[in-house]
């Protein structure tokens, strides 16, 4: 969920909670004020009732005036009497129905007699007024929430626009580019500080990258020079007819180790270029034609191990570096042959979406968690342990996926375009 959505949800929840609590308090406050007003009116009516009793020579009678209703009952109760206000209902003769009312009860003395007087006033109008105020308040509450939601969702999106632009620029940032991160200007101080921090970080990263790149290239060059000298000297020694068979065997071992060191150096250099996306040349490649060429190149090695190769190729074109595609196929084919069994089989299947290289081999599945990691290889492997790592990095560079699958007696690598 986006930050703006979190902010909108939080602000709506908080506003809704505060407004609901405020509306409840507002409702009870209005009700309380309304009752206080009715009680003051009842007190005034009680004063008028006392005057009515004193001016009435006979027994006071019940009377109705507008919505005021007074009842007099002769009682033996004596003073002092506690005056009481309470909610009740009464029959309104004018409306011919029962209505909600507010009443006051008190004791009034007339001569030697005491009368309990109960005066009731209608609170229907007040109740309607409170309901109307509640409806208006509820409508305002809904309207405020709607305005808050729309404002946060649409109108405030402009505040996040600099952040979105900065995020897009970060996504497009390439450490190998000459252009540095600039950031989009913003009137918001936090976004300005964010751009400045990212700009400083990009400068440090670019500086470290250039230093590492220069070190890698220099180290590779410096290593290749003595390796080439050693290889040349070994070639000269091998041609010496005075050497014994034992000496030639030792020289051959040294020659093999030097070649392995040279391949390892080149593989590590290529991995560094892939991880830093320094291989930019691309062209349209017909994968099926490259596979046919590669099968021809491995023909002699296949014959030596008596391995049968079968292929089903569907025309498929991709845009990539021909050099990297060649390395990818070399590693997949060489693995399928090197780790095969004498008289085994290799099945190659190319479709529009996938390339599958399947070979017979040992009856033990490889470790899928480590197979694509650097320097992970079998005990009897003569490789550098970087072949499948290169395959994985090449696939990642072009957005492909590489998967290993095991079937009883078969090992399968699938590249999904």
UniProtKB/TrEMBL annotation:
<keyword id="KW-1133">Transmembrane helix</keyword>
<keyword id="KW-0472">Membrane</keyword>
<dbReference type="InterPro" id="IPR003661">
    <property type="entry name" value="HisK_dim/P_dom"/>
</dbReference>
<keyword id="KW-0597">Phosphoprotein</keyword>
<protein>
    <recommendedName>
        <fullName>histidine kinase</fullName>
        <ecNumber>2.7.13.3</ecNumber>
    </recommendedName>
</protein>
<dbReference type="GO" id="GO:0000155">
    <property type="term" value="F:phosphorelay sensor kinase activity"/>
</dbReference>
<feature type="transmembrane region" description="Helical">
    <location>
        <begin position="12"/>
        <end position="33"/>
    </location>
</feature>
<feature type="domain" description="Histidine kinase">
    <location>
        <begin position="218"/>
        <end position="417"/>
    </location>
</feature>
<dbReference type="Pfam" id="PF02518">
    <property type="entry name" value="HATPase_c"/>
</dbReference>
<dbReference type="InterPro" id="IPR036097">
    <property type="entry name" value="HisK_dim/P_sf"/>
</dbReference>
<keyword id="KW-0418">Kinase</keyword>
<dbReference type="InterPro" id="IPR003594">
    <property type="entry name" value="HATPase_dom"/>
</dbReference>
<feature type="transmembrane region" description="Helical">
    <location>
        <begin position="129"/>
        <end position="150"/>
    </location>
</feature>
<dbReference type="InterPro" id="IPR004358">
    <property type="entry name" value="Sig_transdc_His_kin-like_C"/>
</dbReference>
<keyword id="KW-0808">Transferase</keyword>
<dbReference type="GO" id="GO:0005886">
    <property type="term" value="C:plasma membrane"/>
</dbReference>
<dbReference type="InterPro" id="IPR050428">
    <property type="entry name" value="TCS_sensor_his_kinase"/>
</dbReference>
<dbReference type="InterPro" id="IPR005467">
    <property type="entry name" value="His_kinase_dom"/>
</dbReference>
<dbReference type="Pfam" id="PF00512">
    <property type="entry name" value="HisKA"/>
</dbReference>
<keyword id="KW-0812">Transmembrane</keyword>
<dbReference type="InterPro" id="IPR036890">
    <property type="entry name" value="HATPase_C_sf"/>
</dbReference>
């Amino acid at each position: 969920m986006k930050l703006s959505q979190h902010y909108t949800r939080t602000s709506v929840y908080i506003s809704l909670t505060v407004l609901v609590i405020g509306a409840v308090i507002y409702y009870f406050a209005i009700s309380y004020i309304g009752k206080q007003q009715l009680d003051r009116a009842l007190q005034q009516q009680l004063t008028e009732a006392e005057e009515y009793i004193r001016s009435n020579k006979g027994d006071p009678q019940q009377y109705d005036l507008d919505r005021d209703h007074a009842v007099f009952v002769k009682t033996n109760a004596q003073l002092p009497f506690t005056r009481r206000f309470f909610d009740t209902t009464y029959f309104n003769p004018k409306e011919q129905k029962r209505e909600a009312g507010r009443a006051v009860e008190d004791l009034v003395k007339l001569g030697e007699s005491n009368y309990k007087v109960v005066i009731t006033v209608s609170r229907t109008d007040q109740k309607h007024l409170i309901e109307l105020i509640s409806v208006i308040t509820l409508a305002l509450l809904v309207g405020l929430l709607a305005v808050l939601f729309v404002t946060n969702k649409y109108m405030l999106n402009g505040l996040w626009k600099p952040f979105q632009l900065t995020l897009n620029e970060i996504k497009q940032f390439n450490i190998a580019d000459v252009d540095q991160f600039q950031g989009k200007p913003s009137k918001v101080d936090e976004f300005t500080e964010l751009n400045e921090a990212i700009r400083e970080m990009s400068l440090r990263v670019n500086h470290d990258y250039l230093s590492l790149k220069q070190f890698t290239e220099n180290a590779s060059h410096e290593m290749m020079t003595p390796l080439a000298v050693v290889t040349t000297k070994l070639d000269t020694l091998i041609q010496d007819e005075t050497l014994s068979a034992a000496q030639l065997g030792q020289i051959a071992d040294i020659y093999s180790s030097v070649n392995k060191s040279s391949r390892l150096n080149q593989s590590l250099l290529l991995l560094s270029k892939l991880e830093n996306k320094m291989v930019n040349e691309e062209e349209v490649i017909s994968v099926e034609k490259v596979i046919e060429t590669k099968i021809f190149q491995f023909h002699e090695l296949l014959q030596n191990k008596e391995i049968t190769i079968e292929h089903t190729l569907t025309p498929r074109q991709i845009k990539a570096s021909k050099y990297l595609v060649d390395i990818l196929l070399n590693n997949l084919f060489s693995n399928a042959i090197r780790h095969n069994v004498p008289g085994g089989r290799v099945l190659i299947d190319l479709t529009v979406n996938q390339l599958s290289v399947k070979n017979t081999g040992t009856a033990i599945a490889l470790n899928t968690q480590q197979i694509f990691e650097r320097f992970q290889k079998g005990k009897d492997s003569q490789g550098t342990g970087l072949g499948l790592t290169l395959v994985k990095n090449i696939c990642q560079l072009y957005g492909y996926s590489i998967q290993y699958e095991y079937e009883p007696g078969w090992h399968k690598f699938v590249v999904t375009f």
